[in-house]
């Protein structure tokens, strides 16, 4: 299920439309993940405040979307492009890769809420594939 | 036994009370067939599914999406016993329709996305959590009678 030329074009076009709101997207997606999938809170026990829209959640949402933006720019070779991030997740953060799917789902929900007209089924499938490719790249170095 | 708070019950009944079944049902099913194309295997007799536009305008898919969404009404009315309520439907999906139960989750995810797009910011994190909990119980009940 690799990214076709059509998928890449759809992702780049859609990203160009929405990247201006990347911070809001990241914050909302992360907030939802922590509420809807409480097991994900185990990775953030060191934060003072895990509630939706809190300062640590906003800041981390920004970081995550920065990674997504990077992946869009490197869409022609995501796995090489994200090697450093993969090492970070594998050796330092050690996030169980099942959680990448969870965060991806919440990103898609936020995009549907914020861009109901633009988030068509065709855009949805391209983004779902893209986020799956990003998740795979992030788990490259795990074992 | 699944426990529901008063708040969760009212969130679910409100969503379904204000639902445009034809719009949401057809959008959810067609989105599922487009985003997860292998699900088309169950709809070989439904006519033209060759591309996204064909799927989106296919009247058989639209009608079926509405039917599936109305199927959730029984769960809404019997939230304390969804497993028993869907025992027969589970047998049907297993023995007659031969649907891989993994597909139930795919349709549930598409339904979540369609409802989120419709409700906008009213689909808060808490509402999302309740709606996904409800769908997870339905999905589990539908897979219960497979063996």
Distance between the termini of chain A: 22 Å
Number of domains of chain A: 1
Number of domains of chain B: 1
CATH architecture of chain A: Orthogonal Bundle
Q: What would the average pLDDT of chain B be, to the nearest integer? A: 96
Q: Provide the succession of SSEs of chain A.
A: HHHHHHH
CATH top level label of chain B: Mainly Alpha
Structural class of chain B: mainly alpha
Q: What characterizes the major β-sheet of chain A?
A: none
Oligomer: heterodimer
Number of β-strand runs of chain A? 0
Strand content of chain A: under 5%
Kindly provide the name of the CATH class of chain A.
Mainly Alpha
- The CATH superfamily of chain B appears as Globins
Taking Cα atoms only, what radius of gyration of chain B do you get, to the nearest Å? 15 Å
Give the averaged pLDDT of chain A, no decimals: 96
Proportion of residues in extended strands of chain B: under 5%
The parts of chain A where pLDDT drops under 50 for at least 5 residues are none
SSE class of chain A:
mainly alpha
Find the biggest chain interface.
A-B, 17 and 23 residues
Largest sheet of chain B: none
Structure description:
- The complex is a heterodimer of chains A (143) and B (147).
- Chain A contains seven helices and no strands.
- Chain A is an all-alpha fold and 143 residues long.
- Helices cover 69% and strands 0% of the residues of chain A.
- Chain A has a single domain (5-139), classed as Orthogonal Bundle (Globin-like), CATH 1.10.490.
- Chain A is globular, with a radius of gyration of 15 Å.
- Chain B has 147 residues and is mainly alpha-helical.
- In chain B, helix 8 (102-119) runs antiparallel to helix 9.
- Chain B has one domain: Globin-like, CATH 1.10.490.10.
- In chain B, 32% of the residues are buried.
- The chains are: A mainly alpha (143), B mainly alpha (147).
- The interface between A and B is medium-sized, with 17 and 23 residues.
């Amino acid at each position: 299920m690799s990214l076709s030329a059509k998928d890449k074009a759809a992702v780049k076009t859609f990203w160009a439309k929405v990247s201006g709101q990347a911070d809001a997207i990241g914050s909302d997606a992360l907030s939802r993940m922590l509420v809807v999938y409480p097991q994900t809170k185990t990775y953030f026990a060191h934060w003072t405040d895990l509630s939706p829209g809190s300062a640590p959640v906003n800041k981390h949402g920004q970081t995550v979307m920065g990674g997504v933006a990077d992946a869009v720019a490197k869409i022609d070779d995501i796995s090489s492009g994200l090697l450093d991030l993969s090492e970070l997740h594998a050796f330092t953060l050690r996030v169980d890769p099942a959680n990448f799917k969870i965060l991806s789902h919440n990103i898609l929900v936020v995009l549907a809420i914020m861009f109901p007209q633009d988030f068509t089924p065709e855009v949805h499938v391209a983004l779902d594939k893209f986020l799956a490719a990003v998740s795979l790249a992030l788990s490259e170095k795990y074992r | 036994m699944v426990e529901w708070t008063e708040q969760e019950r009212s969130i679910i009944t409100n969503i379904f009370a204000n639902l445009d079944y034809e719009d949401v049902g057809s959008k959810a099913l067609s989105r599922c067939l487009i985003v997860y194309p292998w699900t088309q295997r169950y709809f070989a007799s439904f006519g033209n599914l060759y591309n996204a536009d064909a799927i989106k305008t296919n009247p058989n898919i639209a009608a079926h999406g509405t039917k599936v969404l109305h199927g959730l009404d029984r769960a809404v009315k019997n939230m304390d016993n969804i497993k028993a309520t869907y025992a027969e439907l589970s047998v049907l999906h297993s023995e007659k329709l031969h649907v891989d139960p993994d597909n139930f989750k795919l349709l549930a995810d598409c339904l979540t996305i369609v409802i989120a797009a419709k409700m906008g910011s009213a689909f808060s994190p808490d509402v999302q959590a309740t709606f996904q909990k409800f769908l997870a119980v339905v999905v589990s009940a539908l897979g219960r009678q497979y063996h």
